[in-house]
Amino acid sequence: MTFSSYASFSVRAALVAMVLASGSNAHLVAYSKGMFCKNDYGTADAPNAAVAISPLWNLTWTDWFLHGKCRQYPPPAGEFLSIPSGGNFTVEIAANRAFTTLSYNGGKATDWPDGKVHPTNWSTNVNDPNYPPTSSGCISSPNLHAHNESDAAGTAFAISYNNNINTVNISDFTVFSVLPNTPYRRIATYQVPNLPACPAGGCLCAWAWIPNHCGQDNMYMNGYRCQVTGATASAKAVASPVPAQWCESDQSQCIIGAKQLSIQYQAQGNNVQLPPGFQKDGSWPSPGYNLKMGFKSGAQTDIFSKATAPVTPNTCPAAATVTVTQTVTITATPK
Ligand SMILES: *[C@@H]1O[C@H](CO)[C@@H](O)[C@H](O)[C@H]1NC(C)=O
Ligand SMILES: *[C@@H]1O[C@H](CO)[C@@H](O)[C@H](O)[C@H]1NC(C)=O
Ligand SMILES: *[C@@H]1O[C@H](CO)[C@@H](O)[C@H](O)[C@H]1NC(C)=O
Ligand SMILES: *[C@@H]1O[C@H](CO)[C@@H](O)[C@H](O)[C@H]1NC(C)=O
Ligand SMILES: *[C@@H]1O[C@H](CO)[C@@H](O)[C@H](O)[C@H]1NC(C)=O
C-alpha cells in the first residue's frame, strides 16, 4: 500500500467514524430501496452512505436537482421503491444509511434518525445533557430543524412518469403524498392516492423537505426509481403540476390540484414567491410541505386529470400461455 492511498484510507475512515460518532452536523434524507446515492458516489456497497443527506443551498439547477451528482448514481437495474396505488409505503428517514435497516442488518437503527436513543416525544422541552439544543434553541440530534414533533415542517414524495434521468425536470414531478410533522422519527409512512401504473422501466420519485428555520434555511431532495403497484386500468393520469403558492392567511390563494416540488434558497430555479413580512409564527415566511403552501396532509387526491392514464406495458394482464398447434413454413420468394 502506498503512502497516499494509506493516507486517503485513514482520512475516509476518520470521516466515517466522525459521522457515526457525532450526528450533530448531520442532516436527513429518506433511505429506501431504489434510491439514488444509496452507495454514495459509487457502486460498491457503502453501509455508511450519507452524501444524500447534505442540505442544498445556493446551488445551480445541475447541483440541486435530485441532489445533483446523485443523478449519476442510480440503484441497481430492477431495484425500485414500491408505491402501492391507494395504499401506503414506508421509508426510513436518517442521517446516515448506517442508522437504517439497509445497513448492518438494522443493528445500528433506533426509533430515531440519528441511531441514538431519545425520550418519547423528544423535544427541546426535555432536558438531556447529552444532546443540548443547538445555538438556535432547536433539537440538535437528530438535526431535524425543529423544536419538537409538531414544529417539524413536513416532507413530501413526488412522482414523474418520465423515467429518463437525462431529460426529466422539475415540471415532471407531481407531489403525491405529504407527511406532516416530519422529519421526526426514523420510520415514515406515506399515503398514496390512486396513481396509475408506470411505463416500462418504472417511474422516478423524489423525496423533499424544506425545514421551518431552526438552523440555516435550505432544502433537501433525493431521487428514487419507483414502481406503482396494484394500479387499476381505470386510474386517471396525473395532471401537469404547477408551482405551489403561499396561502397561510388566505386559503383562496392555495393552488388546488397537481403541484410541483417547491424550490427555494437556490441560485437558480426557485419556483416559490414568498410574501413580505413574517409568517404567523413570527419568523420569515418558510415554504414547507404544509398548509402554508396549500399542501394538505396525506395522499394528494386532487392531482389527477380527467383522462384515463394511457395503458402502459406493465398494466397489461400477464400474457396467456400460447400453445403452438401448427407449424407453417414460409419460404420467401426472391424478387
Ligand atoms: C451563491 O452562489 C453564487 C455562485 O453561483 C455566488 O456568486 C454567491 O456569492 C453565492 N451567495 C452566497 C450568499 O454565498
Ligand atoms: C398501511 O397499509 C397497511 C396494509 O394495507 C395497513 O395495514 C396499515 O394500517 C397502513 N398504515 C398506515 C400508517 O396507513
Ligand atoms: C407523545 O405525543 C403524542 C401526540 O403526538 C401523545 O398522544 C402521547 O401521549 C405522547 N406521549 C408521551 C409519553 O408524552
Ligand atoms: C413545539 O415548538 C414550538 C416552537 O418552539 C412551540 O411553539 C410549541 O409550543 C411546541 N409544542 C410542543 C408540544 O412542545
Ligand atoms: C430544467 O429546468 C430548468 C429551469 O427550471 C432549466 O434551467 C434546465 O436547463 C432544465 N434542464 C433540463 C435537463 O431540461
Automatic annotation (TrEMBL):
InterPro entries assigned: LPMO_AA14
Top-level lineage group: Eukaryota
A GO cellular component annotation in the UniProt record: extracellular region
Subcellular location per the Swiss-Prot or TrEMBL entry: Secreted
UniProt cross-references to Pfam families, sorted A to Z: LPMO_AA14
Signal sequence, start to end: 1-26
GO MF: metal ion binding; monooxygenase activity
Cofactor(s) annotated in UniProt: Cu(2+)
Keyword ATP-binding assigned: no
Keywords from the UniProt entry: Copper, Disulfide bond, Glycoprotein, Metal-binding, Monooxygenase, Oxidoreductase, Secreted, Signal
Gene3D superfamilies, per database record: 2.70.50.70
Family: Belongs to the polysaccharide monooxygenase AA14 family.
Name of the protein: Uncharacterized protein
